[in-house]
């Protein structure tokens, strides 16, 4: 239910509008076809509605897409061939369906040219065959031209709008994908500015150090010292940049450059309102013509014309000012006037005025609370049937008075008028509500895009911590180690410089992995890297366990590799460890990882709760492990700190990598103050 308890409009209901429109139009015209052209005319008219109804069905739309030309030719034949048999007795509304289908199946502007051609053929028909029934020729000709155009535009509008709403609803994640792409571009620029340039300088310094290693050890040491400083600045900028990124810009603005108009967000509301305005103008034009050519008294003509204009204006007011379940001001009075005017003028002037009772029923559905809306609309439509079932006296005697029904009309006429009014109600209600529905779907897509950008931002922050933290720490340590070896052991220094260049290249690859979300981590690769980088820091490393070389499901492999990176990073950054044990074991249907070091100070201070800038740490790791049904624990005792994770192997393949839930307000390490001083924090 919408705000204010009004009727809720779903995409399914929107899709039902064109079907109901066609069926009601068939119902109203079938009696005319049988009356003027006999049973054969009724059969042909029924066949005329088959292809338009087919177009409103999803499976029929596929058939239209494959055979558009032949199907349009069949529809044209069903529209015009009966003229050869029935002559001017053939129903005049038939071209409306062909005109609507041309608008739906042919690309603009050709579709509108063909639409105009169909209406022009009606003018040719009148010129060649004359008017189909006695009466005021001018009014009949205008009706023959305006009525098909009106119904064709209404059919087109209802189908096209339902399509747009369905497409917007089905593609509600499209904007989210585009917004995430924009956010990734922004993250790439941020990380390249914060890290990429520093890594380029590190690589350049390392190459210069290699060149100077044999001939000028002092220059090589200076280059490596500068490389270490660049790596540490890059690490600090990563922390600062991620922290700043979390504070802004708002996720609502992150995808703001995405052109929503290009993707149909604003098309449906504008098209609905334009179509509704055209339909109402056509109704009013027909009625105005009847009034102006009636030849009645001037006062009566003026009053009738003013009433028609007022009813049309009230409908536009109701439709265009209705927003998100909130009707316009004074709607009770304006709805009452719109409802009563057609009935007031029906006996007094022109029977066509009752056509405007249909839009009044649509306004009742639009404006009234749900418990009253259907009842009021049904009452208005019933009033149309009753009005056409009672003898109507000519209240205005004089030439040209159109109300000359002095006996009860037949059932076919009542059915026709009731169907016409119901059709008008559907057109008005549908075209009035569909803009709001489209705007609701567009708002939902924007919210999904905002959430997707926020999720992407959390992922980048998480992966920046997980991937870049250890890599940059390793680059800094390798620079220090190579610098200490220069002049003491040239072969080892050269080997460490080669390793430094590899680590720098890997860090650049980590930037790409962070910004694209396509990085793959494995425990086996991280074990080798961990032993290497810990050795560079002077930490003796022992690998234990039976699962070190085992193949793990990709989600488990990636998460445990991330846990291992976090454990090693914390050994380097937050402890004074001299020994680290890494153990990977399997136990039945689960795999366990344990990282234990001896770097905890003897008398650690109490945790302060201070959040390290840019950190992601244990809360995120815990969330990622829990997403696989596992558990992450930490333990500190006797000068040792242990990080352990256990993850079940069963059903792990059902979890897609890269969709681990972020942890709001997480900290870099819940025991930062417990595990002691950091290696990198000692740098100026």
Automatic annotation (TrEMBL):
Boundaries of every Signal transduction histidine kinase subgroup 3 dimerisation and phosphoacceptor domain copy: 456-514
Membrane as UniProt keyword: yes
Transmembrane segments: 7-27, 33-57, 69-87, 93-115, 271-293, 299-318, 372-393
GO molecular function, one term: protein dimerization activity
Compositionally biased spans, kind Basic and acidic residues: 653-672
GO cellular component terms, A-Z: membrane
Pfam families reported in the protein's UniProt record: HisKA_3
InterPro entries the UniProt entry points to: HATPase_C_sf, Sensor_HK_TwoCompSys, Sig_transdc_His_kin_sub3_dim/P
Alphabetized UniProt keyword annotations: Kinase, Membrane, Transferase, Transmembrane, Transmembrane helix, Two-component regulatory system
Region named Disordered: 593-621, 652-684
Protein name: Signal transduction histidine kinase subgroup 3 dimerisation and phosphoacceptor domain-containing protein
Source species: Jiangella aurantiaca
């Amino acid at each position: 239910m919408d705000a204010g308890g009004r009727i809720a409009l779903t995409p399914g209901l929107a899709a039902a509008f064109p079907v109901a429109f066609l069926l009601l139009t068939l119902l109203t015209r079938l009696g005319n076809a049988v009356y003027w052209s006999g049973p054969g005319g009724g059969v042909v008219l029924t066949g005329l509605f088959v292809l338009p109804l087919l177009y409103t069905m999803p499976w029929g739309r596929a058939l239209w897409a494959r055979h558009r030309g032949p199907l349009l030719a069949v529809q044209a034949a069903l529209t015009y061939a009966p003229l050869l048999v029935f002559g001017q007795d053939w129903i005049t509304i038939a071209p409306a369906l062909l005109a609507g289908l041309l608008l739906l199946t042919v690309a603009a502007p050709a579709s509108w040219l063909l639409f105009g051609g169909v209406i022009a053929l009606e003018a040719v028909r009148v010129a060649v065959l004359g008017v189909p029934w006695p009466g005021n020729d001018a009014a009949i000709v205008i009706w023959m031209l305006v009525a098909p155009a009106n119904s064709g535009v209404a059919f087109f509008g209802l189908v096209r709008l339902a399509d747009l709403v369905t497409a917007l609803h089905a593609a509600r994640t499209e904007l989210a994908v585009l917004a995430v792409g924009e956010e990734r571009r922004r993250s790439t620029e941020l990380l390249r500015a914060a890290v990429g340039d520093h890594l380029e300088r590190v690589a350049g310094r390392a190459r210069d150090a290699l060149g100077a290693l044999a001939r000028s050890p002092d220059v090589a040491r200076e280059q490596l010292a500068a490389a270490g400083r660049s790596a540490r600045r890059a690490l600090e900028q990563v922390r600062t940049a991620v922290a700043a990124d979390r504070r802004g810009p708002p996720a609502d603005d992150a995808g703001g450059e995405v052109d929503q108009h290009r993707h149909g967000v604003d098309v449906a509301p504008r098209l609905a309102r334009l179509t509704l305005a055209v339909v109402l103008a056509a109704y009013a034009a027909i009625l105005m013509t009847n009034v102006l050519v009636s030849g009645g008294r001037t006062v009566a003509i003026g009053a009738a014309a003013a009433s028609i204009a007022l009813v049309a204006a009230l409908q536009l007011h109701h439709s265009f000012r209705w927003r998100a379940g909130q009707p316009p001001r004074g709607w009770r009075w304006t709805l009452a006037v719109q409802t009563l005017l057609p009935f007031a003028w029906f006996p007094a002037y022109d029977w066509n005025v009752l056509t405007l009772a249909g839009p009044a029923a649509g306004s009742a559905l639009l404006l009234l609370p749900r418990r009253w809306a259907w009842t009021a609309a049904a009452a208005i439509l019933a009033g149309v049937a009753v009005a056409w079932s009672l003898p109507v006296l000519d209240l205005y005697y004089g030439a040209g008075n159109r109300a000359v029904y002095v006996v009860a009309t037949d059932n076919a006429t009542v059915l026709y008028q009731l169907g016409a009014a119901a059709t008008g109600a559907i057109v008005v209600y549908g075209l009035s509500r569909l803009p709001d529905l489209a705007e609701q779907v567009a708002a939902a897509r924007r919210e999904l895009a905002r959430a997707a950008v926020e999720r992407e931002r959390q992922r980048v922050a998480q992966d920046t911590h997980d991937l870049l933290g250890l890599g940059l720490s390793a680059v800094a340590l390798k620079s220090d180690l190579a610098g200490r070896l220069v002049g003491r052991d040239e072969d080892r220094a050269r080997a460490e410089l080669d390793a430094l260049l590899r680590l720098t290249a890997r860090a650049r690859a980590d930037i790409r992995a962070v910004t694209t979300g396509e990085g793959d981590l494995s425990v086996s690769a991280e074990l080798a890297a961990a032993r290497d980088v810990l050795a560079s820091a002077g930490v003796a490393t022992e690998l234990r366990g039976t699962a070190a070389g085992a193949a793990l499901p990709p989600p488990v492999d990636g998460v445990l590799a991330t846990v291992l990176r976090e454990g090693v990073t914390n050994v380097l950054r937050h402890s004074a460890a001299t020994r680290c044990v890494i153990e990977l074991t399997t136990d039945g249907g689960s795999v366990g990882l344990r990282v234990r070091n001896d770097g905890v100070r003897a008398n650690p201070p109490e945790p302060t709760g201070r959040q390290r800038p840019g950190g992601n740490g244990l809360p995120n790791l815990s969330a990622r492990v829990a997403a696989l049904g596992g558990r992450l624990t930490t333990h500190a005792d006797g000068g040792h700190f242990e990080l352990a994770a256990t993850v079940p192997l069963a059903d792990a393949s059902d979890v897609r990598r890269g969709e681990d839930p972020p942890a709001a307000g997480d900290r870099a390490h819940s025991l930062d103050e417990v595990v002691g001083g950091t290696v990198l924090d000692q740098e100026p």
